[in-house]
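TOPIC: backbone geometry
CONTENTS: sequence, structure tokens:
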Amino acid sequence: QVQLVESGGGLVQAGGSLRLSCAASGRTFCSYAMGWFRQAPGKEREFVATIKWSTGITYYADSVKGRFTISRDNAKNTVYLQMSSLGSEDTAVYCCAAASRLRLSGRYYSPDDYTLWGQGTQVTVSS
């Protein structure tokens, strides 16, 4: 079965950058959209970014807009999250997710829009 595996997390100083990767493995993978979510201790899971698989159209949460960039490599079935100007507020477990069900609205901002999730990777930003 298809699995999503995140990598690239770690410890980074404030103002630094990290690139997260989410690779799909297993049988042939197909998704309408891919997304990144994060959850900090004691907080609700938060939408970060999403990308339409076929078109590459992206959407970002206001909190990360201008700092994070989501992209995808169709041939590699891999989604990336380039994070820059990181601050302590970005510390969280980051999970990638795949939307295998079409949303007629074209919006994939809610966790309920996604059916397949990775295990998560920890990002810790220190001063």
